[in-house]
Structures are given as C-alpha cells and as structure tokens.
Amino acid sequence: MTIPVHTSREPSPSAQGRALGAAWRAELTRTAASYVDLFAAHGVRGGQVRDWGAAALAATRDWAPGIADEIEGVAAGAGLEPWLLGALNGRTEILAAAAVGGEGECSTSVALPGGGVTPRTVQTWDWHDTLADVMLLRDLEVRPGLRVCTFTEFGIAAKIGVNSAGLGLHFNVLRHASDHPGIGVPVHVVARRILAETSTVEEAVAVARSARLSASSVLTVVTADAASCLELSPAGVAELPAVDGNLLHTNHFLDPVLAPGERTVAAESSTAARLAELRARTSALNAQDRTDRATALLVHGPDGAPLCAHADPALPPHTRWASLATISIDVAARRIDVHEGGPCRVSADTWQSLSAKETL
C-alpha cells in the first residue's frame, strides 16, 4: 500500500477544502466515524463531541480564519457537519479534555552535524492501529510562491511537514496538568500555521506563543542552520535547544519549568525508556542516509523500549498502539519522506516522497 496523496492548487482556502472534501468523501466519513468511536471509548459521546468540535472550529476561526475556511470547505465538500471536522482537527484537545492517558505516542530525533551539513531527522508516528487508514499526504500551495508538504490525517489541516522556505516540523503529543476542557486552538492548526507562515525558528516560536491552547504537544522545528523543540502547553511555551548537536523527544516534558506539571504516568507509558534508547543511539541517528536513521529506531518492546511499536491484539482497540509511519525531513531539498509502517519494515525502496521545493 501507499499513502494517498492530495494536491491543492485552488485559489482560496475554501476552494481547496471543498476540492479535498469532494475527492475523499468516503475516507473523510470513515475517519470521522473512527474518531467518534475513539472518543466514545474514552467516555466522550454525542453532544459533548459536537460541542467540543464546534469550539475547536470557533477557536480556529478566531486565530486562523483562513484555516477555518479550509476546514469548513472540507466539510461542505464531503457532506459532513462542520463540527465533525472541528472535532478531527481538535482531536488532541478533545482527548486532553477527557484526561486520556496511556501509552504512546511518537519518538523524534533531529541531528545537527553543523558545518553546513543538512540536519538529519527521523520520527515514528505511533497511533492506534485501528486508525491505520486515516493517513494522508498533502501538497498544497498556501499562497503564491509558498508550498507546504505535510503528512497528516484525513480532515486535519497539517501535522508533520516541510515548506518551500526550508522549514520542517516534527510532532509529538504531550500531556500536562494545565490541559483543560475549555477547548482552545488545536495544536494541529498551530502546526499548519507554522508551516504556512514561517521560515525561521524565531518566527515559529512567535506563532506558537500567540495561540490560546487547551492541550499540549511538542513541535520540533528545523531549518538548515537552526532547530528547537517547542513544548506547547496551556501553561506556556518552552523552547529547548539542541544538546551536543541533537534534539531528541518522546512524550514527556523536558523543560524544567513545565516538567513538574507532567501528566503522563510512568507506569503506563514507555516515554522515558524510549528517550533513553534515542540517547543511546545518537551516533546511528546521525547517519546521512534516511533508511539508516530509520533502522536506528529498530528496537521492540520485548527487547527494550518500543521505538518500533506493534499493537497487542489482546488489548481493547482504544488502548492499542503501533508505529503506523516512519518519517524523515530534508529541509535543504524541501522534502518529506514517509514510510508506511514501523522501522522494522523500512528499506530503501519503501519511501514515499513529496517535495515543496519552489522559488519563493
């Protein structure tokens, strides 16, 4: 299988959304139903999903009206209620509002060799195995002369990606005591606005700090000559620099001010063990070849921390986790490379690539 690709060149956000919605109506309907089921499994049902989805869309409209136009366009094109698309984009906020914990998610490495050498990145995208069919690659022109290529999910504005200005972004979920049910700007919308509007780490930080958040995540922003992990939470945004030329992050706060509010429970999450595995593998994660970097993540739960996660079929569906994709970004080439599946199945021939390289 390959991950579906959608290209957007329509003249407005609304038109781009409508075209995407019409082209992928069945997939969007299925994705929305899958998330409604996931929310219900965590005790969030019916009217509450509708209210929180509408709130996520309203927060998006206040902060990023063009992105809200696109989201509403997707709903119109697919024949779905706008609040459902709000709930998809706000799925992190809805799960945070419900205080959902558990294992997962992703593991990210960015190596900064210096000396003019392009940063070398790789991450897993770990999520529920029941949502393996929600992945989408988008190539969109966000304004004349600026393109964004992003790995995301059907109906979600952006996730991991790169723009034609040479800025890349990786994405991991976090959980913080300050997360709350007063739904704010979705972190996926923050990611999209960074990809659509910024070309430097400093600009990305300013965008992130301007959003009213209700849930937490870490966005690792990378350019040719700089990189930083931006830990986002309702309590504030922390900027973490590289240590010894490496940026490594899993799913717990590292900033000393925000870390005391950590909500991930060590007894149910492998995040600390996965970070330790990344730190032990920095030499391999500095490899020039993307396949070699992905292979450096090849460690399973029984052999250590599950950098390459496989779902346990004995668990209920809403508690199962798997590495559904392995992703690398080349900011010099303005390219995102995606392998469908975990590191244990990657080879030189299993990558899908999208390039946003285009003169600004």
UniProtKB/TrEMBL annotation:
Annotated keywords: Acyltransferase, Transferase
Family matches, as InterPro entries: C45_proenzyme-like (IPR047794), Peptidase_C45 (IPR047801), Peptidase_C45_hydrolase (IPR005079)
Domain Peptidase C45 hydrolase: residue ranges: 122-341
GO molecular function, one term: acyltransferase activity
Key word Isomerase present: no
Keyword Acyltransferase: yes
NCBIfam families: C45_proenzyme (NF040521)
Name of the protein this chain belongs to: C45 family autoproteolytic acyltransferase/hydrolase
